């Protein structure tokens, strides 16, 4: 199961739309490792602790998860359109993802940049492979 959904929130969802802030809180509390990784990458971006390629700035996480539970959290949050979209709106960024741990945050204005396209391209994916990541 991806999320630990409180009964109150589930009942609300069964009867109609759910407030995005409540959904975000459910993601934050259910997937704390994933939340922290993304929040830290966004903080790095907003504080200027970012990689810079030409005029494009982005921040990324290159530290592998400490265990399979953490890896699973990151995979689930980024594989879900609903969760990923809500996090992008909440943090005001465009997220990009490679492997089991490499998460990058781009300003929304850079989603069409060469750097973003390179990061999310098949070539970028292939160049970010290594034997130690084969099992991730």
From TrEMBL:
<feature type="region of interest" description="Disordered">
    <location>
        <begin position="110"/>
        <end position="136"/>
    </location>
</feature>
<feature type="compositionally biased region" description="Polar residues">
    <location>
        <begin position="122"/>
        <end position="136"/>
    </location>
</feature>
<dbReference type="Pfam" id="PF20704">
    <property type="entry name" value="KH_NucS_shadow"/>
</dbReference>
<protein>
    <submittedName>
        <fullName>SCO5389 family protein</fullName>
    </submittedName>
</protein>
